[in-house]
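stuck on this chain:
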Amino acid sequence: MKEIKGALVLDTLEEITDPKHTALLVVDVQNDNASPKGGLASKGMDISWVRDVIPNIKAILQEARRLSLLIIFMRITRSRDRSYESAPMLRRLNEDRAHARVVAEYEMEGTWGNEVLDELQPKSDEKQITKYYSSSFMGTPLDLILRNNGIKSAVVVGLVTQGCVETTVRDIEQYGYYPVVLSDCVCSSRQDLHEAALLVMSSRYDVVTSEELLRVWRSGSAVR
């Protein structure tokens, strides 16, 4: 910990990711985009970019559960009547998300595809938050949940790197928390955008591998 302009701030990875004040945010890892039986895969679309990071996410999730971290699953959702999506958002989805046009009910509210990936098996006491925008904070109770649980830092995993992940990470800091991004637990169907987003985030925030964080958590060096 160090003092900057009269304020005490967390400084090292050990301090920032101390289990007693850290939450794990699993961003948009859902059946439609990550399951071999989901919307994308069922239409023959490549989901290897998601599947490749699932083992790392599982390892982090297992350790977070062992350490009793606050775990929150975010679910990106499409409303059936499009009442939650703005016109600019609909334009972007129509032009940039070809898979959303191929799969009619892709990530639609009330569907199995919208649910958290079955393999991650969310526990009954783990929060699930529905969101309609890229940021995990916009229109959700996330900030309230974090503050009421004494959270100071948030570790982020999920997809997509240059979209919901990066937008959420920026807001984590803006809302007054320390963001930590796990580079091998986030992904995108476009490797160039994935790498570009990691480069930008690493210039501002803590971007580390899952192994680096696991070493910290398993060493017991975090302040208890």
User: Anything to note?
Assistant: The chain has a mean pLDDT of 91. The CA atoms of residues 153 and 177 lie 5 Å apart. Strands lie at 2-4, 7-9, 22-27, 70-76, 127-131, 153-159, 178-187, 206-208. The first helix runs from residue 13 to 16.
